[in-house]
What does this fold into?
Amino acid sequence: MKMTEQYRIFEVELKGTEEGNPYTDVWLEADFANGEEKVRVNGFYCGNGSYKIRFMPGKTGKWSAVTKSNDFLLNGIPLECVCTAAKAENHGRVLPMSQVQHCSLEKEEEHRFRFSYEDGTEFFPFGTTCYAWIHQPEEIRKQTLESLRKTPFNKVRMCVFPKYYDYNKKNPKDYPFMGSLEEGFDLTCFHPAFWEKLEECILKLDQLGIEADLILFHPYDKWGFSKMDRETDLAYLRYAVDRLCHYKNVWWSLANEYDLLPWKTVEAWEAYGETVMKRDPYGHLRSIHNCSSMYDYTRSWITHASIQRIDVYKTAENITEWRAKYQKPIVVDECAYEGNINYGWGNITGEEMTRRFWEGCMRGGYLTHGEVFVQNPYIWWSHGGRLYGNSPERIAFLRKIMEQAPSGSAPLKLTPENHQANWDAPCFCREQDKSFYLYYFGFSQPSFRSYELPEGCRYEIELIDTWNMSIDKLPGVYEGRVRIEMPGRQYMAIRMKRV
It folds into this structure.
């Protein structure tokens, strides 16, 4: 009997028919049960007469199943595994906090906007973008992982299909389907070597504590993958989900810039979203990403909003409005990129990238980083490799500050009573017991700030320089009406802790 750690993969390889096209002709499934729950999983073909059944147990104890298949060689095979308790660093899947019964956040109205691991540990996504890193040579993939190991990023946006765009026009070694650009692709036969490489990349990200936000479709294509017909799209989605859903760190992003694929209708996207949702027995996170036209993120299959900024300048400031509109976690997955590319989406400064992250976090949202410096042969936003920008270490500083915020902290809601004092600086705070306030001033540069502190409360106050990454504790404690002297420079924050 095989032992499997909770939230890890139990896998059995079986031998079956090689006749015909096993990818289209053979189905294989199993219902894993532990006496209380039943989880149906779909097996998949991986070439040379080999089939696999995978299962990610969510509870400890003995699980058993019997295979079902239209291939007699694969039918009626008993399977058993014993699930052992998750180790300390293994928190399970990331889910909307509203779906996790034992989450740690006390302010329940915030649950709909937040993420949590399965074990109840809150998850703050600090993402980055490496669209085509899995399609690069092995040495660049290794360098990407080593770079990620040193960064604050715990989510990576990455494409399944290769990408054809400026600064990224080389053909990859492997494709999801059998064939080549020169000879054509057999869209009914998947390429085992490619899927094994993708799985290895997902697993190595998981070993670093990083979520793999898999982009299933995108428009930047010269191979014909973006213009497959609907039945081919659906067959590809079924195979991808059946094979990859057992990795606990997978997120499903139906598309990058779905509106640049106008030949795929909203009705088609809805069918694709429903297929992914129903095919994945574990309910991994699901979304779809826009270019200029926002998708309707209230759709039932969508777990969170994955948004590209829709204004050249105003980005994270929209999070307050989007939270109110969609009532789901808001992830600004493309807030522009630090770099010097010729396009406006890829030449903001490290200061501005850092400011957008702070602004978004104070408003109760999450952001994703990207980097495009064209003097380098491998560009992070597409290839991975090395990072050259100034923002990642500042984002790491912000991540620590956000993770230090007490449970139950949330964006300060403006009311007629507090509007005048707080309208110009977003605040992340624990308002229910008035124990914590974190104000951010962004590109403003006040020389002092006055506050009327809550009656009966005394506070320690710190000045935070978010760019120079310094925290200076002011002497003494403060109560009543206070004036806080500030350095008159940008990117400052004030943190107040009740004593």
Remarks:
- DSSP finds nine helices and 31 strands in the chain.
- The two ends are 55 Å apart (CA to CA).
